[in-house]
Specification:
about 70 residues, alpha+beta, 60s Ribosomal Protein L30, Chain: A, 1 helix, elongated
Length: about 70
């Protein structure tokens, strides 16, 4: 996300919502620690633990929405 957001004129501080899916509930605590280091402001958030992804090597999937005020 940190590499893609600037291409749209945004940054991590512009994230307003994140959806997170993990395949191992044992990773939830570590995930929250890392997310807290990256996203330091309050956002809307949803997390789910799923059985698997289509690609077995994937362990986490993230969907983030960033918003910036319109400029004149």
């Amino acid at each position: 996300m940190e590499g893609i957001l600037p291409k749209a004129g945004a940054s991590l501080t512009d994230i307003v919502s994140v959806r997170q899916w993990l395949v191992d509930e044992n990773d939830v605590d570590a995930y929250w620690v890392v997310r807290g280091e990256v996203i330091k402001h309050e956002i809307a958030s949803m997390m789910a633990v799923v059985d698997r992804f289509i690609w077995p090597s994937f362990k986490v999937d993230l969907e983030a929405i960033a918003a910036k005020p319109a400029t004149s």
